Every structure is written in structure tokens, then in C-alpha cells.
Amino acid sequence: MARLNISLTNEMAKKIQDIAESDGKTISSLVTESVNIYMKLRETGLSKDQLLKMLKFQELTKAMSAVPVPSLLLDLNINMALQASQEKTLELWAERGKVIGELLKSISPDLTELSKEIKEYSDLIPLDSVDLKVEGNNVELMLVGTGFSIGASSVTAAGMKGFLEVYGIKNLKETISEGFVKITGSI
Questions:
Q1: I want to staple 113 with a disulfide (CB 3.0 to 4.6 A). Which of 6, 70, 77, 108 is the partner?
Q2: CA dihedral angle for residue 148, residue 152, residue 156, residue 158, rounded to 10 degrees
Q3: End-to-end distance of the chain based on CA atoms, in angstroms?
């Protein structure tokens, strides 16, 4: 086995030693595991920053109790729910939007901050495009890839309106088409 000398700050060396002790491992095995993880990241083309974003995003989806559902199945279920009761379905999506809004507001207290977070995490969001613009008192939230039907876009719009209401946005107006939602409002 090859031996390498590495230099670490005293603080880093202490942290590694503490982690190794708490995990019941040697410092050497901990460093070897860490290097293996780094090498696997490189092989997959991911950076450390991307991995950290993915972990943070996973925490958020867990907090929302989000579950991955194939988009065609989700679209079908949405349209069936809308046929059964359009008013109740839209109401439920608006309520869920408020819950998500409260969660996001605890992370990003204002829309300008949230806009930055959306840009940072946009590659992890299962949409073709998401953009939140805040200009003066005007707010525009645009989503592309929100499903395959008008029904999917209409429930997405209801959820986004609920979400924006949490941030105090009023006079909400929607523009929807298949796979497209734009919500505008004012602060």
C-alpha cells in the first residue's frame, strides 16, 4: 500500500481525528473513504458543489414529503381529480402551495433571496425552466414543463398562487397553456 504525506490545518486534522474516533475507524480508512467518494464524483462528472446542492434539495423534498411520480401518471391523475371536482382540486393545490411557501419562506425570507436560490437549484428542479423575477413592486413567476395538459398547468398555477400569497403577493393573475404557467402579481 502506498503512503502519502498530506498537509492539513490543525483544525482539519482535529476534526478528522474526532470523526474517525466517533465512527470507530482509523484516520487512514476515513481519508481513503473520502478520496474514494471524491473519485466517484469525478467519474460521474459531478462536483462537490453539485453534490451538496443535491443533498440540500433532497432535504427540502423530504420536508415537503415529495415523492417522484412519472409525469404521465401524475398528469392523468390530475385530470381525473379535476373532472371529479375542479373547485376542490384547485383549492387543495392552493393549500399545498401555501404549505410549500411557508417552508420556503423559512429558508428564503424574501422573494429576491428565493429568486437567487431558484437560479442556484434550477438544474435540480424537474421543470424545463423556472424563473422568478422581482422588479419594483411587480413579481412574475414563470414555469415551463409543468405537465402535458391544461389541467396540470391549472393545478400548478393554483399551487403557485398559494405559494406567492405566503410572501404577501396580491392581485395574482395567471397565464397558462399546456406545459406553461406564468403568475404575475404585486407586492
A1: 108
A2: 150
A3: 63
* CB neighbour list of residue 71: distance below 8 Å, 6 or more residues apart: 126, 147, 148
Q: Are 174 and 183 in contact (CB under 8 A)?
A: yes
Please give the Cα distance from 63 to 9 (Å, whole number).
36
pLDDT tens for the chain, 187 residues long, are: 788 888 889 999 999 999 999 999 999 999 999 999 989 988 998 888 888 888 888 887 787 777 778 888 889 999 999 999 999 999 999 999 999 999 889 889 999 999 998 888 888 887 889 999 999 999 999 999 877 899 999 999 999 999 999 999 999 999 999 999 999 999 8
What is the span of the domain harbouring residue 28?
10-45
| Residue 63 lies inside a defined structural domain of this protein | no
Q: Are 105 and 164 in the same domain?
A: yes
Please check whether residues 96 and 154 belong to one and the same domain: yes
Pair 40, 79 in one domain = no
∠ Cα 56 92 145 (to 5°): 55
Query: What radius of gyration, in Å, describes the C-alpha atoms of the chain?
Result: 22
Number of domains in the chain: 2
**Inside any domain, residue 111:** yes
- Phi-psi map region of 65: left, alpha, beta (phi>0 left; psi -120 to 50 alpha): left
